[in-house]
Amino acid sequence: MAKDYYGILGVRRDASPEEVKKAYRRLARELHPDVNPDPTTQERFKEITQAYEVLSDPNKRKMYDLGADPFSSASAAGAGGFGAGFPFSDIMDAFFGTATASRGPRTRARRGRNHTIRVELDLTETAFGTTQELVVDTAVVCEVCHGAGSSPGTHPDTCDMCNGRGEVSQVTRSFLGQVMTSRPCPQCGGYGSVIRHPCQECSGDGRVRTRRTIKVRIPAGVEDGTHIQLAGEGEVGPGGGPPGDLFLEIVERPHPIFERRGDDLHCTVHLPMTAAALGTSLAVETLDGTEEIDVRPGTQSGQVIPLYGRGVQRLNETGRGDLLIHVNVETPTRLDAAQEELLRELAKLRGEEHPPGKFAPGQQGFFSRLRDAFNGR
Questions:
Q1: What φ, ψ does residue 283 adopt, rounded to 5°?
Q2: Quick one: pLDDT band at residue 64, thresholds 50, 70, 90?
Q3: Are 3 and 71 in contact (CB under 8 A)?
Q4: Could you give the domains of the chain?
Q5: Closest to 364 (Cα-Cα) out of 374, 354, 372
Q6: Quick one: three-class SS letters along 100-140?
Q7: Is residue 13 over pLDDT 50?
């Protein structure tokens, strides 16, 4: 042979296939026409590509080592030897580190999609947990073809266009010579087989739509916006593929009394001025039933009366939050003559007929705020 392919790649005659590949990748990155457009470099690039085509093929390498022409049984394409065996995948591998390997036929069975449904619950249900029966519209395996997609007694036929490979090859000409590319077979869609007699029940999809009922346990402590994943409860994939997951999105209905903040509950109780001053007892509604609480004499508006452990169960933990009762003291706006006389007598007894008033930070009058603004406070 006139050309020394081992010398062109710079490898020993006993070099392993991996060493040959590494040498070619290194030279291809240096000599590719996109990197070095010089005509001499292009000729050099064709030489290393031809050398790699021979030394990477065990049969051609054996013929070359024996002194025979390795291209005698292949159709050479021009002086550079770029034919159907042009190592386009190894050029891509040289630049991107991955080879464009043949995909082959793909399976019809694919994983099903995930599905999300909204579940509306009352506060009591989210606090303590509940069991719900949910009606789900989903896809299940066709009971007639069992996911195969073909009518009973028939089978998919091997595609006569790609001969079951799932892809077809095409040779195109470029400045480097002829390049072979592959694409999914247009007749079988890349599956390698064609369903001549699709199942009439599922039209060849291997699944049908249906409505089913599932029983779901909602754990205690979930709140508005919580997502619960039910693995494998989603819809079955095409071709009888594995099912996806079902996600439950919790929607908590507003409660007429309680406002939830995390694991704690808040409510407001309105007390008359006299009850707040003298103290009283109240019957308070909780998630556990009615409970009596004591309001101490002199309770002020804005004070909070806690009921520990009367809130929501902590999710995946032990213990519960608290119930916080906010007190709002109401001042009467309408008094009859007798009530007004009693209040005036009380004010006289307490020396509060003309109170001076007490101001605290954030509650001072207009002129005080204006003065502080000018003083830069």
A1: -95, 115
A2: confident
A3: no
A4: 5-96 (1.10.287.110), 259-333 (2.60.260.20)
A5: 372
A6: CCCCCCCCCCCCCCCEEEEEEECHHHHHHCEEEEEEEEEEE
A7: yes
